[in-house]
Amino acid sequence: MLCDVYILYQSNEPRLEAEVKTHPVRGWLCYGDAGRSYPHDEAHLYRSRTDATEVIPFVDFARVRKIKRGGLRIEGMQRHNYNDYWKQAWWCLPVCQEQPSQHEEQSDVRYEAIRAAVVQVNATGPACALDASRLKRPA
To answer: 46, 109, 134, 138: which has the highest count of C-beta atoms within 10 A?
Structure first.
């Protein structure tokens, strides 16, 4: 789903609230099992539904920790170096394409978007950028 993502941690430290609020990142949020040899969930933010270019580094070992006020909080780890992970958390607010990035109204629309997305979550389905056919890199 299309979301504004507020990145809550940087370099394993919580970011200041004012800094978090002024720099949301918009992209296509995809959450689910990545199909690796060790099963776990990942959260990715892609440029669009059809473009699997990462907008920001993905969250590994992701878990949805809270669904509240029209948004959801995803927590997990981000790889810093080989075998070195830092804590990461995202606050995600679903948006309609017509909405400007900072639009704070219509929490009912956001709630319905989250509810619909949760019902349709399928990390291997064609609606998700984690679909293996969409992640194939050009040769």
So the answer is: 46
Tens of pLDDT, residue by residue over 39-79, are 789 999 999 889 989 999 999 999 999 898 889 999 999 98
Choose the weakest-confidence range: 39-48, 85-94, 98-107.
Answer: 98-107
- Please check whether residue 66 is in contact with residue 44, taking contact to mean a CB–CB distance below 8 angstroms: no
**What separation in angstroms does the CA of 101 have from each of 3, 17, 86?**
9, 17, 27
Report the candidate in 53, 69, 76 with the shortest Cα–Cα distance to residue 7: 76
Q: What is the pTM of this model?
A: 0.67
**Angle, vertex CA 49, rays to CA 10 and CA 105, nearest 5:** 70
The number of angstroms, rounded, from the C-alpha of 67 to the middle of its chain's C-alpha atoms is: 13
Give the whole-angstrom CA distance, residue 12 versus residue 30. 23
- Identify whether the C-beta of residue 47 lies closer than 8 Å to the C-beta of residue 60: no
